[in-house]
Amino acid sequence: MLEEWVSLDGYAVDARGSLDFFPSTEQNRAADRDQLAFLERVDTILLARKSYEMFADYWPTPKSAGEIIADRLNALPKVVFSNTLREAPWGDGPPATVVPGDAVAAIREMKAAPGKDLVMWGSLSLAQQLMRADLIDEYHVQICPVLVGGGRPLFADRDAHARLRLVETRHYEGSGLAYLHYEPVRDA
């Protein structure tokens, strides 16, 4: 499954390459409680190199102290898709596994293996490759109440056509966040 945070106008990264439009931890408490419950379904976090670097700079460090999901997130195995990294340390915990080469093929194999769900966070270019390969079974989109006016859109392939079925919505009082859960409608 793919889980992304986007601005209301659909950007996963603003025009400066920043994620500053994401809500603060304080604004995000209710969404984090739901996220903690969601993580019980997951046994592996998938990241591309840039997202790994951002995550590793925050989650396994004292900066994440007090974050509701920190312990669970840090305990989950992580796979980093990169042709440049040789290792992917994760603070004091076990390092992430680095997988070079064809990430789409590797993820296809991982999905076929037994186990709980896989979740991809961030990793926009790889997420878009997985969308084109029809490997996303669930889209979890957190919509931030801000218009950024430009940047990198989550759904960049404007010529693609995909039908989705709305499974669940939530909104978080006080933060303006909205959560949308969609699943692809695949022809039988």
Please tell me about this protein's structure.
It is a single chain. The chain contains five helices and eleven strands. It is of the alpha/beta class. It has a domain at 44-134: Dihydrofolate Reductase, subunit A, CATH 3.40.430. It has a nine-stranded mixed beta sheet, sandwiched between helices. It is globular, with a radius of gyration of 16 Å.
Question: How do the strands and helices of this protein lay out in sequence?
Answer:
Elements lengths: L1 E6 L3 E4 L14 H10 L3 E7 H8 L13 H6 L2 E4 L6 E3 L2 E7 L3 H10 L4 E5 L2 H9 L6 E6 L6 E3 L10 E9 L4 E8 L4
Provide key terms for this protein:
single chain; 188 residues; alpha/beta; Dihydrofolate Reductase, subunit A; nine-stranded mixed beta sheet; two-stranded antiparallel sheet; 5 helices; 11 strands; globular
Calculate Rg over CA atoms: 16 Å
* Quaternary structure annotation: single chain
User: Could you say which structural class the secondary elements and strand pairing correspond to?
Assistant: alpha/beta
In the CATH scheme, the class of the domain at 44-134 would be Alpha Beta
Unreliable residue stretches: none
Could you tell me the strand content as a percent range?
25-35%
CATH topology value of the domain at 44-134:
Dihydrofolate Reductase, subunit A
Series of secondary-structure elements, N-terminal to C-terminal:
EEHEHHEEEHEHEEEE
Supply the CATH architecture of the domain at 44-134. 3-Layer(aba) Sandwich
CATH superfamily membership of the domain at 44-134: Dihydrofolate Reductase, subunit A
User: Mean of the pLDDT scores?
Assistant: 92
Main sheet properties? 9 strands, mixed
Strand order of the largest sheet: 5-6-4-3-7-1-8-11-10
Helical amount: 10-25%
Count of individual helical segments:
5
The geometry reads as globular
Distance between the termini: 20 Å
Quantity of strands, as a count: 11
